[in-house]
């Protein structure tokens, strides 16, 4: 999902420069004048993006703190923070102004004194929602951390997603992996994508194909002991690419005496949804 920049129209020049800089760093930025076409509903689109965005950058200036529209955008972000129990608003002070009360407890990027350092701080904060190669997903019962890595072995490309599942009341964690071994055709295509700075998109598409090709019921497994267990699959694409898929999973930590059912497809879906959201290209 995109990153929303809340700003006053009077600060348009600063917002455009900041947005362009972040896009160069491969962040998916949404601003109304970049995305809206003639006839689009401004209110509907902004409401949708505010509800779906992974982060809301708030440019604080004399103009924005006095803007009723900007206050509504901040309030929408605060409501989401309370309901989703996660930090979404990222304040950036661009000139002397009175910081709104509900933002005063947040660390902000200060563009008044050192813009370069403030930009670096903002990019670091955005990394947790804009890095397509790793992420974390939390629900009231579980937390899943994951990352993806790739390498070459004997001239063949290998992609590996690693997941760690934590249950808030579990005395153990579940470690699982999805390893994708490319055939020569896929290896060539992956190398080409990497040379064109499209490796993230290529891995995203491979994961989407895995989700399409592997039956969900084949990824519901039971862990009975500490030994690693595996599942092997294979699928082909019409363009000549072929992939060997290896799933492995095991339990680490205290044995509570019960079997554990693991839904490997949930982890793949978490990673895919994140990669799709982060690698989506902003329209200009």
Walkthrough of the structure:
The protein is an alpha/beta fold and 284 residues long. It folds into two domains: 3-130, Rossmann fold; 134-279, no CATH class. Helix content is 38%, strand content 31%. It contains nine helices and 13 strands. The strands form three sheets. Strands 6-7-8-9-12-11 form a six-stranded antiparallel β-sheet. Helix 7 packs antiparallel against helix 8 and helix 8 runs antiparallel to helix 9 (264-279). The radius of gyration is 22 Å and the shape is globular. The relative contact order is 0.12.
Helix content: 25-40%
**Number of continuous helical runs:** 9
How would the global form be characterised? globular
Total number of strands? 13
Low-confidence stretches: 36-41
Number of domains: 2
Which strand order spans the largest sheet, edge to edge or round the barrel? 6-7-8-9-12-11
Q: What is the secondary structure topology, with strand pairs?
A:
Layout lengths: L2 E4 L5 H13 L4 E2 L1 H4 L6 H11 L2 E6 L1 H4 L2 H17 L4 E5 L15 E2 L4 H16 L3 E5 L3 E12 L2 E12 L4 E11 L1 H12 L3 H15 L6 E4 L5 E8 L5 E12 L6 E4 H16 L5
Parallel strand pairs: 1-2, 1-3, 3-4, 4-5
Antiparallel strand pairs: 6-7, 7-8, 8-9, 9-12, 10-13, 11-12
